[in-house]
Design a protein that fits this description.
Blueprint lengths: L8 H11 L4 H8 L3 H8 L7 H10 L4 H5 L4 H6 L6 H8 L15 H16 L3 H21 L3 H20 L3 H18 L2 H17 L3 H15 L6 H20 L3 H18 L12 H14 L3 H10 L8 H17 L3 H14 L1 H5 L2 H11 L8 H9 L2
Helix pairs in contact: 2-3, 2-4, 7-9, 8-9, 8-10, 9-10, 10-11, 11-12, 12-13, 12-14, 13-14, 14-15, 14-16, 15-16, 16-17, 16-18, 17-18, 18-19, 18-21, 19-21
């Protein structure tokens, strides 16, 4: 008996294919994947990789979210997170209306403390807390920036928009995350901040990565690197530069360009050697640890799952590393371990992903797809396996 609803990604692929009157061979030709791969995915014998999902979505002219089923509305409703989305949309929509006469902003330092608190909450995996606080803070900082314009206030507003992007993307609202990014770019331009401009291109590139538009993503990371070169020399610029290289490495890996991926990883590693662990610089979690986990991600994107799983066993995550990044790492490691046939280790990694950041793991597509891949072999796993599925989708 399945402990997750039957409408898995593989089920949606089959349904979308049939709605378009396509055979498995025809879809394989359009998506430039093998017919065998289509068959194995649809039959549940092989879980779909991000590259595979993006390829079939592009072939059938639908968004990746249509294939993955995000956002997971039933679960969001059960967690009372769905009601928090509309206020965020409304707060993002008043960006150009000037100061709100009914809002009296608090002192700038208090606003800055709250904005940083949002970044910390998201990194700690406290998505619901951040989502609840976002709308009011965005509106307050919007009024503060319009009432007394300054680079500092515009940077602060850009930070709140970045948090809105983080929350929306983690909950699977791709349209809302795109709006938040557009607002971030708008505020960064007014702050005349090359660093924020580079970060905006990095986050925007990630949206194209998820949609399988790797060439556009690569162009964006290249543009981001050129823009951030204009920032004042120092650790902040180095951290953003390094993170852009990490994003570009994953982009190259997913497009199966191993050489280019290694070039970006090597440059990021060189920069991380100078910056050290810099998790709190713009809360990008950049540093030697992030380079290591990105190497694992790239190996997985290149379908080198054995090497990814082996490297994953060697990584030592610092205790103070952000819970959200820790959870994401364990989710990706679980996928690699599943592909190598190490089912028990894969499930343990899923449990670690949940322990690190429960709210994030519940809405993480990799966690769900990996669980789906393990489900057929659940007799080989502990009894807690089915309860994990009930937690994912009660």
């Amino acid at each position: 008996m399945h402990s997750l609803p039957h409408d898995h990604t593989r089920t949606r692929i089959r349904r979308l294919r049939r709605e378009r009157g396509l055979t498995q061979t025809e879809l394989a030709d359009l998506a430039q994947v093998s017919t065998s791969q289509i068959k194995k995915v649809e039959q549940g014998q092989r879980p779909p990789t991000p590259h595979f999902v993006a390829s079939v979505a592009r072939a059938m002219r639908v968004d990746v979210a249509t294939v993955t089923g995000q956002p997971y509305v039933s679960e969001l409703r059960a967690d009372q997170l769905d009601v928090l989305i509309r206020p965020i949309r409304e707060a993002l929509d008043v960006y150009d209306l000037g100061a709100d006469p009914e809002i009296t902003p608090r002192p700038l330092q208090l606003l800055a403390t709250d904005a940083e608190g949002l970044l910390v909450a998201v990194r700690a995996g406290e998505i619901k807390q951040a989502a609840a606080q976002l709308p009011g803070l965005i509106q307050e900082v919007t009024t503060a920036a319009h009432a007394v314009p300054s680079d500092e206030r515009w940077r602060l507003l850009a930070s709140t928009y970045r948090s809105a992007y983080d929350v929306a993307s983690k909950l699977g609202y791709s349209d809302l995350s795109a709006i938040a990014l557009a607002r971030m770019a708008w505020a960064a331009e007014r702050a005349s901040s090359a660093t924020l401009g580079g970060m905006y291109r990095y986050f925007r590139a990630l949206t194209y990565l998820r949609d399988g538009q790797y060439r556009t993503g690569e162009r964006l990371t290249a543009l981001g690197l050129r823009i951030v070169e204009q920032a004042e020399a120092g650790r902040e610029r180095e951290v953003v530069t390094g993170q852009l290289h990490l994003g570009a490495a994953v982009m190259a890996g997913r497009s199966h360009d191993g050489g280019q991926a290694e070039n970006h990883l090597a440059e990021a590693e060189r920069i991380a050697g100078a910056t050290g662990e810099a998790a709190s610089v713009h809360y990008l979690a950049f540093g030697p640890t992030n380079v290591q986990v990105h190497r694992i991600s790239v190996l997985a994107e290149l379908d080198e799952y054995g090497k990814a799983a082996e490297r994953g066993r060697q990584v030592v995550i610092p205790r103070d590393w952000p819970a959200s990044r820790r959870s994401h790492h364990h989710a990706e490691l679980a996928r690699a371990q599943m592909w190598t046939g190490d089912l028990e280790a894969s499930f343990k990694s899923l449990l670690r992903a949940r322990t690190a950041a429960p709210q994030q793991a519940r809405y993480h597509s990799t966690v769900r797809e990996t669980y789906d891949g393990l489900e057929a072999a659940h007799r080989l796993l502990p009894d807690s396996f089915l309860s994990f599925g009930s937690w994912l989708a009660p």
